[in-house]
Write a structure and sequence with these properties.
mainly alpha; 2 domains; four-stranded mixed β-sheet; two-stranded antiparallel sheet; 23 helices; globular
């Protein structure tokens, strides 16, 4: 999407420079996101990626029925699950139908979405903080750890960011030109973002409403809320999203399989966490390190500060929406603190608003007195090095198959069980091994597995049980102790003469007709 070159002003005021070339941030962003593009689903949040990849594979292999997303851990059932709107896995499935099942295609789709987001972010920044600050904001999105990693994972976060950026960018264009097609595209993108994740209703909806009121009705909120436009925009998205989640709930009630959107075992709504320091301290540390690579923090603070007297031109008026967006993401995360504390990709939307502000902070730093220009460049270089170190240590290193116990267990399951076997995998709630082995079955904890004998699993339709003594839940170490000892004794009781090793696969022989409805443990 090329930058607007036919106008010399944006929605927020005069632009500070002619458009800068787009290829540097796009080229740098593509190069970083291509690292290990061929990697299988392993490493950080592999459980989330495995479920998404399983949906895509099941769409491609079992019929392209968009309304029936399926996972692998449904036992002998269909695997139909209550899930968020499966737009991303369905898009991956279309690629699989054309070119075969290869994870690099899924990662490639995420990469394409992420590069388009960089482009849109530059356009957003151009209108809110000026041409050069917007360009630098796009560059920061291209190199910082969280946008890079989740810009090439097998999960819908890259698509979510693209839809959110498109909704905001087109809304700004509509405010400037009043073309209905821009508003329609913005609404479609906003609705799509809410379908994919729901929380954009708050962290994106509030900034859009603020922009509308400030630009069209000069801050007169009472007048704005009496007009039908804002209500139609919001309620249309609410209606579409409600329809899908009503349908998803019916799927979950019929199959017993759910990601816990309506509750489940994970208490995502435990608001007591908000009263303690641990939640806020860990959240702040995570954002500082993984979102901003530490040295991005002072740039963000500089971008948030009011301009100093006699300094560079003040920010464009609509740029005030960016701090509102930051607050919206933090508040939206606080609505589900348990989930937000565990899943770092819930902080990814911060970058939609933080990166333009960082671009503004970078320009202010460069325009400081004395030797600040050289210091600004040194800070930028170190920040990029820190970002690459975080990516290498915390993310890329965990995606390698060499030495991966989860990968080796999956290969062993493939070698020792038939293609259509149903397998019980003792990996807790993590479906990574089951997905990598391309098998359907059950997920249980080691304790849950050892509570029952082989007859229990045979009756349920299982052909084998498998697990690792080295790791639990993909890459977390399985420490020595009573828990592991109980598991070893159970395995050896089912397979006399069992050998010591890092993993086990116990065949159960011919499975009997299940005597109970399949469910997860």
């Amino acid at each position: 999407m090329p930058p607007d070159r036919g106008h010399d002003t944006g929605a927020g005021g005069p632009l500070d420079a002619p458009p800068l070339p787009l290829w540097p941030p796009l080229l740098i962003g593509a190069a970083l996101r291509l690292v290990q593009i061929q990697a299988p689903v392993l490493g950080i949040h592999s459980w989330r990626q495995a479920d998404t990849a399983a949906m895509a594979r099941n769409f491609a292999e079992q019929g392209m029925r968009f309304w029936l997303p399926q996972i692998d851990w449904g036992g002998t059932g269909s695997g139909v699950v209550e899930a968020e709107f499966p737009l991303y896995p369905y898009g991956v499935a279309l690629l699989y139908r054309l070119f075969g099942v290869h994870e690099w295609l899924a990662r490639g789709l995420s990469l394409a979405c992420s590069l388009l987001t960089i482009l849109l972010l530059i356009r957003i920044g151009r209108r809110l903080v000026g041409e050069r600050a917007g360009w630098w904001g796009g560059l920061f999105y291209a190199v910082l750890p969280i946008p890079v990693f989740y810009g090439r994972t097998v999960q819908p976060e890259a698509l979510l960011m693209l839809l959110a950026a498109l909704a905001l960018e087109r809304f700004l264009v509509w405010l400037q030109g009043n073309r209905r097609r821009d508003l329609l595209v913005s609404w479609l993108a906003f609705s799509g973002a809410c379908l994919v994740k729901v929380l954009p209703f708050l962290w994106l909806g509030a900034p859009l409403l603020w922009l509308l009121v400030e630009q069209r009705w000069q801050g007169r909120w009472a007048l704005a809320l009496r007009r039908p436009g804002p209500w139609l925009y919001a309620l249309g998205a609410v209606g579409l999203t409600s329809l899908w989640y009503w349908h998803a709930r019916q799927l979950g009630e019929s199959s017993g399989l759910s990601f816990g959107f309506w509750g489940g075992e994970a208490n995502r709504y435990s608001w007591a966490d908000l009263l303690g320091f641990a939640y806020w301290g860990e959240l702040g540390l995570r954002v500082a390190v993984r979102n901003l690579a530490v040295l991005g923090v002072p740039l963000l603070i500089l971008g948030l500060l009011p301009p100093r007297p006699g300094g560079p031109a003040p920010p464009q008026p609509l740029g005030r929406v960016l701090p509102l967006g930051l607050g919206g993401v933090i508040l939206a995360g606080a609505l589900a603190p348990e989930t937000t504390a565990v899943h770092e990709y819930y902080q990814l939307p911060l970058m939609l608003f933080a990166c333009p502000l960082m671009g503004q902070g970078w320009l202010r730093l460069r325009q400081g007195p004395g030797g600040w220009r050289r210091r600004a460049w040194a800070l930028l270089v170190v920040m990029v090095l820190v970002s690459l170190s975080i990516l290498g240590i915390d993310y890329w290193s965990k995606e390698r198959t060499a030495g991966s116990a989860a990968w080796e267990l999956a290969r062993r399951i493939q070698a020792e069980t038939p293609a259509q076997a149903r397998v019980v995998v003792a990996s807790g709630s993590d479906p990574t091994v089951l997905y990598l082995a391309d098998r359907k079955g059950w997920l249980v904890s080691p304790d849950g597995l050892s509570k029952h004998g082989v007859d229990h699993w045979r009756r349920r339709g299982a052909d084998a049980v498998a697990g690792s003594y080295a790791v639990i839940e993909s890459f977390q170490p399985f420490p020595d102790g009573p828990r592991k000892d109980r598991l070893r004794r159970w395995v050896c009781a089912q397979a006399p003469g069992c050998q010591e090793g890092p993993s086990f696969v116990v065949p159960l022989g011919a499975a009997a007709t299940p005597s109970e409805a399949p469910r997860t443990d």
